[in-house]
Prior knowledge:
The structure holds two protein chains of two kinds. By secondary structure, chain A is mainly β. Helices cover 6% and strands 57% of the residues of chain A. Chain A has helices at residues 3-21, 26-32, and strands at 46-56, 60-74, 77-92, 97-98, 107-108, 118-121, 127-130, 133-151, 154-165, 168-181, 186-199, 205-206, 211-214, 235-236, 239-255, 258-271, 279-283, 290-295, 301-313, 319-330, 335-347, 351-362, 398-412, 415-428, 436-448. In chain A, a hairpin with a 2-residue loop joins strand 8 (133-151) and strand 9. Chain A is elongated. Chain A starts with a helix and ends with a strand. Helices cover 32% and strands 28% of the residues of chain B. Chain B contains seven helices and 15 strands. Chain B has helices at residues 32-53, 61-66, 77-92, 119-126, 152-171, 262-274, 279-286, and strands spanning 4-8, 11-18, 21-28, 73-74, 135-137, 140-142, 176-179, 182-185, 195-201, 204-214, 217-223, 228-231, 234-237, 254-259, 289-293. In chain B, strands 1-2-3-7-8-11-14-15 form an eight-stranded antiparallel sheet. A three-stranded antiparallel sheet of chain B has the order 4-6-5, with no helix packed on it. A two-stranded antiparallel ribbon of chain B has the order 9-10. The longest helix of chain B has 22 residues, at 32-53. Chain B is globular, with a radius of gyration of 20 Å. Classes of the chains: A mainly beta, B alpha+beta. Chains A and B meet through helix 1 of A and helix 3, helix 5, helix 6 and helix 7 of B.
Amino acid sequence: MQLKKSKSIRRKLALATSSLLLASPMQNIHSAEITDTNSANPENDRIDISRLYYSEKNLVTVEKFQGLISKELNESNRVSVNIVYDTMSGASPNGRIVNSSGTGDSSITYTTASGSANTVAGNGGAVVDTWKTNFEDTRTAINVDWEKEIIPILKTVISGGQSTENDYTANSFGAKALLDLNQRRTTFVLGTAFNFDTVSPRGGIPEGTATITCDQGDFFRPDEDWLDCDSPRKFFKPAEKNTVSYMLGLTQVWNRRTLIQMNFSLASEEGYLTDPYKQVSITNSEFDGEVAVIHEKRPATRQTRSIFYKIVHLPTDSSAIHASYRFYWDDWGIAAHTFDSRYRITFGSSFYVQLHARGHWQSAADFYRPYIGADDKSKYYFRFAPTFVSADPRLNELASVTAGVKVGIKINKLTDISGRLEQMRQRYDNRVTPDFEALIMQFILRIKF
Amino acid sequence: MESTLIRKGAYWQGLFKAMASPCEILIDNVNKKLATSILKTAENETRRIEDKFSRYRDDNIIYKINSANGSSIDVDDETARLLNYANQCYQLSEGNFDITSGVLRKVWKFDGSDNIAEQKDIAPILRYVGWDKINWQYPSFAMKPGMQIDFGGIGKEYAADKVALLIAEKFNRHVLVNFGGDIVVTGPRRNNKPWEIGLQNPDDTKNITTKIELKKGAIATSGDLNRFLFKNKQRYSHILNPHTGWPVEHAPRQVTVMAQTCIEAGMLSTFAILEGKDAEDFLKAQEVDYRIIW
Lengths: 449, 294
């Protein structure tokens, strides 16, 4: 009996059998690797607890605690409840600029309520004064999803949620349908969502582009005719912001080791879209600094669109690559490209390491100005009151890069734990806004039951 | 053809007859509508395979191939995959497994009697046996006139695997498929519990001597418990050696193997019997769970 030859039969037989039966490893991928729900696969009952720590250098710190419970009610209904509790503190740029120390450069500033200033280096190494708006805010949010299987190939998900902070309330409702075709190799998803938000800032909603302060001295009197330095500002009662959005998506199993996904989304916002705390500085003709400050004002509508492509590929049975590209554009003039990639390696059956890299580029909004220039030689000068203007750096042209690593460990059959550490760096297109760095840490505990 | 659906406590038992065997599908904890749907799908797929590969019909691809009289026949992808598989099994078993050996049926009738065939009857038939005599190049299959192919040796296990996979894909459920003792499950029961399977001892059918817990995999049995010939105190297994035309000598009466799919389990148990007295050594070398009854 040739034992050596007998041994090889089993493996070869197994290979021959999988060609015959065309069993696909993509079945596992579909459920385990894809975290966005473009697939109608059953999940386990589970509890997830997560703690996230986000810290910008010298700016904002966010700590977020999240708990999710997902339970099957019967074989065609599942409910998930997600609770989030955030605390945000620190300082945030409010759009104003301030004098630099004699170099003629301007830099973005941050005001402190107490009026004290800290010094940090601005772009190009110039030392500038920074003013920070200190704040502390907490947010609680709850979201409920109800998944229902109508027929084996059609599933619907209905969701609702509410998020509350002391100056902002968001209510959301959504519905999504997922259809599997082609023996589950193709999934179509169609979704719609509605958001009804109420903005209620401290002190009331300010009048857009109204003057906050005005230097009345002879030396630095502003030139703009349209500036009204005398009338008191008006404030209004809380305002609404409503959004309707639609999404159409397709996930396709390309071959035994590859899956592709495409989505198209559009959204329409209307109502109060301005940030009530953001302001815009008006400078004098010497560009020495700020001589007046007005509130920002954004349009009352916004149409956004995005297309998204993603590919998931398993080069070996214990590694996976996710790569995606999103192109976003809206009618405020912003266009953005986002590239995201993840590479996961699994060791044995209980440990994985995942590397993450992301790049994001966006153009500025049409009405973005770092400040309003003092005379008609400045490209930021306005002869008449601007209809819309904002100096919020998040509407500026910017580029950011994020890199990180995540590690996951399976403690036992029912429990997983994972931790991730990432760093993000962002740079803006002008000399006004300094570069920005943030560190993100997150821990997730998942218990299946 | 009628199928029946019986509620058994926490699961459904679906029954129908196909491939000359009792076919059973066990469905865990679903509503009746879904159980009916699953059973219907299982039955349709089983009959589809049976009709397509049965050698008793005159309207399928097997008939076309077996009556081609030397001409070449173009086959579809599923048939092609089965022919490829038959070819690989022929190679792996060094010619012991051969789907052209069915013509030997003309001289061997395993009815428990003592009608042993004689060499002078066997020899002329051997001219028409041998996978090495066929011509298979996708998509065309051709063989010498007088030769026949028969998927009987893998049809039942193939159907069991295909039905289990189809139900898993279409309904996202794992069921237990049991075609005449060839069993496959694609995954555990609800709440990750295993399926419990009892193996009967053929000499003592009242008691279950072996209990197996299966979450994913298959069990298949080969043997001649009911089909054999007996003469001069010698038992002749119904599994024929295609090289000689004679039954395999000193073969175990029954071999049960556990593997990932029903086809693999069935093939390994068949290969084991073909090894005759070396059956146990062969199975040990494959590192699979097995049971042999001599």
